[in-house]
Structures are given as C-alpha cells and as structure tokens.
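Bug report

Summary: structure tokens for Glyoxalase/bleomycin resistance protein/dioxygenase superfamily protein differ between web form and batch submission.
Environment: batch mode, default settings.
Steps: 1) Submit the sequence below via batch. 2) Compare with the web form result.

Sequence submitted:
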Amino acid sequence: MTLPRAYIEHVAIRVPDIDRHVDFFRQVLGLGIRDEQAAEGARPRQVWVLGSVQLIEDPSFVGPEGRLAHLGIMVDDYDGVLARAAAWGATALPAGPNWLELPGGLNVEILQASAGAVEVALAINPRA
C-alpha cells in the first residue's frame, strides 16, 4: 500500500486579542496577512498569517490550556486519508467530514492539496 503524502498547512491558535497578535506577526516578524474572516461589520474573528498560523479570536480565553484549536493538514489523497482515518478510530466533527477528532482529543482539518503541491512543500529545506 502506498501511503499519501501530507504536510501541516496551518496551526490554529486561540487568542484573546487578535489585533495585538496580528501586530506582533506584522511588526516584529514582518509577516503579512494571507486571509481574514469576520462577521458582518465586526472586526476579524479569524486571521491567517503567512507562515502557517491561523489566529482565532476568543476574548474569554485566558490560559495556555486549550490554546491549540486544530491542525490544518494538506494531503495528496483526500478520500484515502479520510477512509484510513475512520478505520484508525478518528471521528468526524460537526463542521464536516474533513474535520476529525483523533482519540485523545486532537482536532485536525484535512485539506486536499492541488496536484504536486505536497511534493513541492516537502521538498523545501527550511534550514538550507
């Protein structure tokens, strides 16, 4: 059996003040914003920073426990991964069949990569 190839596309993190965290990524690290998602007329509730970080605003969040929301994982075989995940014991979450809870509670979002994208991402040597 040939296993699929995959990479972590983003890590979603809960933060109490999204603007302050966006400022850190912009002003300290020079990272731009890839995408924003906001309710009508409201400030952004979710922001995706270049470099694989998704910030989720949760003003009631106060501690380090529970900060991680989910891992977004790009795969080259979406249907195969979902089938193997179900057989392995992962359960689908209400958000959709590609949102899984692993035994132990870790949530992952499975995303279909475009053709060849996983190989390109895995070929990058961040220490080169």
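Above is the batch result. After comparison, the two runs are identical; trailing whitespace caused the diff. Helices lie at 18-28, 78-88, 117-123. Residues 18-28 form the longest helix (11 residues).
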